[in-house]
Each structure stands twice: as C-alpha cells, then as structure tokens.
Specification:
The protein is mainly α. The chain is built from 13 helices and 2 strands.
C-alpha cells in the first residue's frame, strides 16, 4: 500500500507540474498566435523569441502591490481565486494519461484514480469551479464584479445541461454499465474513436466547453466593454494571476477531456501491432505523447477561435444554450437510441 501511495503521489506531482507548465506557456503561444493573426510580432523581449515571457509575467504578478478593497469580505475575497485554481487542477485526477508502465516488476497505471463514476466526478468538479468566480465577484463589493459573477453562474448552469445530455448519448454507445473514463478509452481502442459514433454530440460538447471555460466568444463574465473586467475587476497581484491561470488550466483540462472522450485518449491507431518489437513501455510513452499532441491541437483551436470570432451578446448566448444546444442534445439522444435499437 505504501508503494502504491508513493507511485500515485509522484504521478500527481508530475501531472500538476505539466498542467501548470502547459498553462503558463499557453499564455505565451496565445500571444504569439494573436500576433500572427493580427500581423504583428507578439512577445519578443524576454529571452530568445520571447520564450521567457511567462516567467516574466509570473514575476510581475508576484511582485505587484497587494490590494483588497476596504468594504470587501477579506476571507471570501482570498478564497475565490484559490477555489477557482483548486477546482481547475482537480479534474486531471481521473483522466487516463497513458496505458501502463512496467517498472521493477510493478505495473504502474498512468491514471491517478480510475473511479467507476469518473464522468460524474468531472461534472461535479467543473460545477464547483463557478463557485470561485461567484465568491470572488460577490466578495469584491463591486457592482461590475457582481454582474460578472451572476453571468458566470447562469452561463455555467445553462451550458452544463447541454453538456451532460451530450455525454448521455456517448455513454449509451460506450458504457459497460459504469461511468469509468478508462473504460470509455478501452472501448475506443477496441472499436472506433467515439467521434465516429457521436459527431453531433462532440460538436455540442465542444461548444459547451468554450462556455464552461469562459473563452471567447463566451467570455461574457469578464467582458471588458461592459463590465470593466468582470468578476476579477478588484483583484490584483497573484490573486488576479490565479484567476487568469485557472482559465488556462481549465482550457488544458477541457482539451484533455475532449481528446479522451471522443478521440481515443492515448490510443494510437496500429501502434499496438508494434508492441512486440518496440516494447510495452515505449508503446505506452508514445501513446502518452500522441495524447498530448491531440491536446495541443485542441488548445490551438481554442486560441484560433478567440482571435477569429467576436463575442456574443448575452441574450444570444442564453438563446444558443437553451433553444439550440439543449434541443439538439435531446435529439442526439433519441437518434442514438434508435440507431442502437434497429441497426446491428
């Protein structure tokens, strides 16, 4: 038991470090992509090609003056960004980052916890993330922050319904009676990736992921043109950094979830055929690297959309969620049931 605990602890530290590293350099690449799309250079002063810009940004946030509004609820004001960052990092615990490694006669799984309710865990943690935004917006004692928090809450509730319904159709195809994410990956390894079976479900899930992570064109909770900065208007120093960083961690985890549920996770077509010649551990490592390649493509897509599509009006955002995505997800469930019943 002690050895298993040590193995899991090391895996947790590695995943946490990778999540923070990818989130940090997502800020750099997003600014580089923005520069490319807008025909300018982007960050280029901090190190060669500006590669040290995330470290410079972190140092700036750590050294900026700490400011707490006079009439703010101090405890909740500090709790808000802390909770946002905590929930952003918790989801990674149930994602299978690879197969198994054979080390010193032991079989080590590259998944922290293979829960039988893994899908419910993901939705539960994601739904808790909005509390960090709501607490921060309310405790700031600022009307713009409060409006941003209310927007975030209503947006997350609206789009979580469509996201959950899209997952129901996926589970109808791939579930073996449990909600384990590793079982869903195993189904895709033995059959086709679920994007083949659920293209409409994937489209709904992806749009809802944009809304859940407050990414453009769904960034209404922090809309600068209307709300100054939204829920983090009164924040400065590293508290502001935690909110901004949590958004990029959420983008990374959302990309990992989409790659896992619809694109086979760490599955590489035909790679298993070469396991005898390459070795089990090398095949596992290649699968993990391939998985991260899929994640990088989704992160690039998040950034591409941000610098391409303008922000919705709030009434358009609500209409899309309630009048378009929810009916589509219900239709997808019905169609999936009909196909599973009559098509053998």
């Amino acid at each position: 038991m002690d050895i298993v605990l040590i193995e899991k602890s090391i895996l947790v530290v590695i995943i946490f470090a990778i999540s923070l590293g990818i989130a940090a350099y997502s800020t750099y690449f997003e600014r580089k992509f923005a520069g490319f799309f807008q025909d300018r250079v982007g960050p280029n002063n901090a190190g060669p090609f500006g590669i040290l810009q995330p470290l410079a940004d972190g140092a700036k946030l750590f050294t900026k003056e700490e400011f707490i509004p006079t009439n703010a609820n101090t405890f909740l004001f500090i709790l808000g960004p802390s909770l946002a960052m905590l929930t952003a990092c918790m989801t990674s615990a149930v994602i299978p980052w690879g197969g198994t490694l054979e080390v010193a006669g032991r079989t080590i799984s590259l998944q922290v916890a293979d829960l039988s309710v893994g899908i419910l865990y993901v939705f539960g943690v994601v739904s808790l993330g909005v509390y960090g935004i709501m607490i921060g917006g309310w405790s700031s004692n600022n009307k713009y922050s409060l409006l941003g928090a209310i927007r975030a809450a209503s947006q997350n509730i609206s789009y979580e319904i469509a996201m959950g319904l899209s997952i129901i159709a996926l589970l109808m195809v791939a579930s073996d009676g449990t909600l384990s994410i590793s079982n869903i990956v195993n189904f895709q390894i033995n059959n086709y990736w679920l994007i083949v079976y659920q293209p409409l479900g994937f489209l709904i899930f992806m749009i809802c992921s944009f809304a859940e992570t407050n990414r453009t064109p769904f960034d209404l909770p922090e809309c600068e043109a209307e709300l100054v900065g939204g829920y983090h208007t009164e924040y400065s120093s590293m508290k502001l950094g935690l909110y901004l960083f949590a958004e990029y961690v959420n983008m990374f985890i959302s990309s990992a979830v989409m790659a896992t549920l619809y694109f086979g996770g760490y599955d590489v077509p035909f790679l298993a055929d070469f396991e005898a010649s390459l070795g089990h551990n090398l095949v596992t490592i290649l699968g993990t690297l391939f998985f991260f390649g899929k994640i990088m493509l989704f992160i690039f897509f998040f950034m591409w959309v941000r610098w391409t599509i303008p922000r919705f009006r709030y009434d358009q955002l609500m209409k899309l969620g309630w009048q378009v995505l929810i009916p589509l997800s219900i239709i997808n469930i019905v169609l999936t049931g009909l196909v599973l019943t009559f098509v053998k």
